Records
---
Amino acid sequence: MTLTTAPRRSTAPAADGAARPRRDLGAWFLVLPALLPILVLSVGPLLYGIGLAFTDAQSGRTQATRFVGLLNFSDLFQDSLFWDSFRIGLIWAFGVTVPQFLLALGLALLLHLDLRLRWLARALAIIPWAMPEVVVGIMWRLVYHPDAGILNETLRGLGLSGAGDGRDWLSGLATALPAVIVVGVWAGMPQTTVTLLAGLQNVPRELHEAASMDGAGAWRRFRTVTWPALKPIALAVTALNFIWNFNSFALVFVLTDGGPGGRTRLPMLFAYEEAFRYGQFGYAATMGLAMVAVISVLLAVYLAGRLKGDDDR
Amino acid sequence: MTATESTGGSERSSAPRGAGSAPVPRGTPRRTSTARRTSTSRRRATPRRTATRAGQYAALLGYLAFLAFPFLWLLSTAFKPPRELSSMHPTWIPEAPTLENFRQAFAQQPLLAAAGNSLLAAAVSALLAILLATPMAYVLARFRNRLSRAATGWVVISQAFPLVLVIIPLFLILKGLHLVDSRIGLIMVYVVWSLPFALWMLTGYVRAIPRELEEAAAVDGAGRLRTLVSVTAPLLAPGLVATALFAFITAWNEFFFALVLLKSPEKQTLPVVLTHFLGAEGVADLGPLAAAALLATLPSLLLFAAIQRRITGGMLAGAVKN
């Protein structure tokens, strides 16, 4: 796809003056060191992976891998366990992305003010961002620990002992998914906050002041001035967060490993097990492809809806 | 409070906005909140405003507690002796703080070797990533064309695919090359994996360097290469460092590829080894687990704190521009 660009570039409006033809060659020379590895170890495997979804590839077997057409897909359609995990993945992705965005927006608005503890909040916001996901998972296991954890102890202290006493949040059938969702929100909030905070810099200050002088209250100013300016970034952040969350692995792997009874088995955990515990490479690739397909459709609908909303204004 | 202060503020904060694409130049207070200050502080404090402020501080404190408490709990657990850890009523402050958990952690798992593996993989892949990405980032920043659009598109797309779709073929390819369960294989994956992001950040940093500086050097008779080496490279250096450190942190923290690609215990990286502390369900040895987790997170935390502003600046440069 990129190969066509070189000859055409010289017909583009010449912004770089006379040195252009020589630079073209030089440009290719400069691009190759990064382009080759990306093509060989990123684009290539991706296409290979899509191909694998149509085969019966398995690890450690002697017969040749065969092309099986859509067999994996018809299997997948009937695989209720996979669709369970798919549903869990969607609940998880929505459950994390929406509160994450709202909380991050609130924090960003606060940090945009001139409050005294701002520096501390900014410093703290770095912690979840810089931590390995594995450590975040371990850390929250310590928080949720039925006996030695701070959560149950805090609930006891608040007089909610009936609710908190010795409860194992991560092993309860009803509590496991909400418990991991809280961790997901915590882990991804800082990055969203920082991005939104940067977006707030683009809010026209003059408009804000004018609205303020016209007697617009805080909510009104947010709705008419801040939000329209912030919306593009907010939209991009939400969409990306949704994809990342839907595809996440390490956090839940460490927290529950998909348990109890598959209640937190995200699609990635399912596909990982299928590929590297049971060796079903082809089938796992099919799962990956199904994840891509559904995410793309969801995103397209979401983005189309949002863009249409813009036109209506 | 005074008029001069607010004008000064508005000038300062409008400059980076005008520049738009640039990663935050050193010393430019990009995130100053003069906007709100100028509009609100002119008014006198009224009871209603005081109440608003109180509400804002209450909210901020709530956020601080939410952000900090798991981490504080990790700290607390790491320094508790076993007796306190098995207590049914855990306390925030260890009554008899001890380093025993750290000793235990090193005794139970090969933490030093694992840290060495992580260090090697992260450092080599970060270095290779910026070496490979810098020339292309230069081209992407200076020539706007389909290539740069395709590359930007690829950055976004590559973030969106579930890793399982990439890791299975990678596993098979690396197996064919006898590079499964090999540090070289893992480093190759890390390099390619961090390339899109390195390109994204570095392109922003290059764009922030005024093209005129290079043209001036060219007018003075400096060749292309000479200009790059003596004019562009020094200005790019801080961005290179930030990008390399970010790639380092990402690889240091990475779990999924390392889990799949490395089988021999002596080759595994720190995040993978950490999971070995989590034995069968519920029987984890909490003290050493917390101690090891704390140690594993320190390098990335310190590095990230050092370069956080540059990273967000670089990321946003890409985001705003594209």
---
Amino acid sequence: MSRTPPSLPARLWADRAIYIFLLPTLLLVGAFTVYPIIASIGYSFQNWNGFATTGTYIGFDNYRELWQDRLFWNAFGNTMVFLLIAVPLRVGAALLIAIVLNARFPGVRLFRTGIFLPVVTTAAIVGVVMRYILDPTGGPVNIALMQTGAIEAPINFLGNAGLALYSAVGIWVWKWLGITVIYWLAALQTIPTDLYEAAELDGANAWQKFTGVTFPMLIPFTIIITLITLIEATNVFDLILTLTGGGPFYGTEVIDIFVYRNAFINTVPRLGYASAAAILFGLIVSLATVLQVLAIRRFRRSAAEAT
Amino acid sequence: MKLLRKPWNVIRILALVCLLVVWCYPFAWLISASLKGQLEIFQKGLDLIPDTLLWENYSRAWVSAHFSTYMLNTVLITAGTVLLVIVHTSLTGYVLGRFDFLGKRFVIGVLLVTMVVPVGVTIIPIVDLADSFGLLSTRWGIILALAGSGQAAAILLYAGFFNGVPKDLEESAELDGAGFFRIFFSIMLPLAGPITATVSVLTFLYAWNTFLIPLVFTFGAPDLRTLPVGMLAFVSNNETDWSGMAAAATISLLPVILFFFFVQRFFVEGIAGAVKQ
């Protein structure tokens, strides 16, 4: 349907049906995603306690205060643990499992379903259930570890400030591993089987097939899957809030919990300050994402030139 | 069995069985705890079989802890969100995947940006906006907020699909006198059935499990809480009612697991398709 309209208004009028189709999304996404991003930037320059209808403009004061707020950097660090430890762990463990599951044997569907169970479970339930399961005074994990003699005294997985964050990382990986396994299975299924047949003719063993065929074919997917997982890792709010509420002693407080606490929980809400924290963190996430996307592009280009 | 002769297969299956136990044990434990007495949960150690089945835990969660209300809210909010998301993402996906128009690149760019924005960034203005429109303590407010946040993936799925549909399909329909809207609703949307199925399943899981938006929208309206939000409220109000909480968690869990078993195919195919794209 190529048209060569004479002028801009005529062109817009000719495409009016298209714009009508776009309208619902423009209204919904505009109101509940695009406007909030812009508004948040505005709020972040205000001193606004949430009881007043608007705040007062204070320039970069919120950002300056954040820079010196140890709790903000604590939350930043906790989020980084998710990005730098939990993401590679989830992506890597899922790849291992996907390689094992990417074969036909009895029960393979059962395994895929079992590993998917926590994915479809609400994070709120996972959080509550894990609080029981890891309870130091009668939770099954501690009982099992004590009975097998692996430990002598119960471990307070979620009540110990130094340990709770890593327990949360483990639970997060446990919860979401299934979906990453599906990503990897999809990636593995794009590899043509004749590549393996050719490798077999050359006498390659299983390891050589992995390093020579599977791994190179997976590189572009690795970047995409890591990117998706990274974005998901910035949204650990539900799990953390129901698991530990950010405690003990802010030990598991990630950025979203910091924002939530300052905006909705504190006796005097600090909406401007919370917005500034969210924006600062959002900038860092966006920067990381842009770098990743650039890496994908560069990789695709060099791959295209190579063939 | 021939399969078990190879040592690698035996190791593989053993490892997977261990994995499966670790993955499924918490669910078995939860269901068992939901039928046990208060003290029994923490005194019987690893034994999963309750002494007597205490079904009253369920009636306590369902009636006294208002989980019947939370269930109704969740069903209504999920249904509304799925419907609204299908309508708006299919319309946008169609025009983005099929036509060139002024501002197309801008729309795509904005959609891509919205995919990477952490939820903490948008939540305060969402509440503020909903409040000024009187939507804050309403189910409609929650539905609109859910349908308007983070649906870029669904739009791109539709766009990818419509981009691949042969052009002559529309051209012949146009010759038959069908207009733009008619073509979309009677030809294109039915064609995209598999995508609609995938988007419905993904949106169902998102809306059923989502937490932050229903949480902050129902601060002032406890009657509108959804299952996940009700779950958290129950925990903070009843730190000692372990078996009631387990029953409440099981009630919240069962519909989504049943649903997942029936639509597994669409779900897995949808995710797989999105990654391959």
